[in-house]
Design brief:
Helix content is 41%, strand content 14%. The chain is α/β, with parallel strands linked by helices. It has a single domain, classed as Alpha-Beta Barrel (TIM Barrel). An eight-stranded parallel β-barrel has the order 1-2-3-4-5-6-7-8, surrounded by six helices. Helix 2 (43-55) runs parallel beside helix 3 (80-92) and helix 5 packs across helix 6 (154-165). The longest helix has 17 residues, at 256-272. The chain starts with a helix and ends with a strand.
Amino acid sequence: MGEIKKRQISEKDKNSTAKDSSDTLVKEGYITVVAGPCAIESRAQLDGIAALVKENGLKYLRGGAYKPRTSPYSFQGLERKGLEYIKEIGQKYDLKTVTEVTDADKASIVAEYVDVLQIGTRNMSNFALLKKVGKIANEMNKSVILKRGWGSTIKEWLLAVEYITSQGNAEVVLCERGIRTFEPYTRFTLDLSAVPVIKKLSKLPIIIDPSHAVGQSDLVIPMSRAAIAVGADGLIVEVHTDPGKALCDGQQALNAHQTREMLAQVEYIAKFFGRKIR
């Protein structure tokens, strides 16, 4: 692990010059909360959620345009039209935008529409995609969120980062989103111990995705509190103005009231560490 630590620190030092500090996904002294729907369903749906994100003082809007689903019969996203919607609505509300890249052939297209490129859990070990996204992120000054594979060790996760950073100075933010264990009650098991371990082994920032980890909206708030308490640099959460009608993962999305409650509780804990929510 010592070799990984040495290289990760080196890459982080280089990454610090890649972007102006005010334009990075993770900013010193702040907890970044990325919020939005699992999938972009329509312009009206995304507009309403973006308004909710903006009125709560957040700066990053997430939304899936291409949706890799376990079942081929599930909603797969609006694809190119979804990208058009998130760019349009992000500009309307002055929000930075985040979406997942699922295919190396589409990486360049996705990068034209959003500010942050996300690599999902299914693609953590898709090394061709990692290298392609790293190259594009470096050339276009984009940030990258790399989610941990649900069956991957921390060592494998950190090595996956290097496929991205080997292509240049892209800002990479790790995202713990739960790993698969024997416990069936929650969707996955959220490994919060990964936060202090990552901070021990590297200088890479790490955020938490409690929505995909627990799979139940009533558990998202307590796990969000825990994530900040253990030292995470931010959260990426699913929110929806009408979760009951969501076409994708509505059971784990926070409604407007829950979103405000989550932010109030997270802010309370963040203050203890001298950090602010953004």
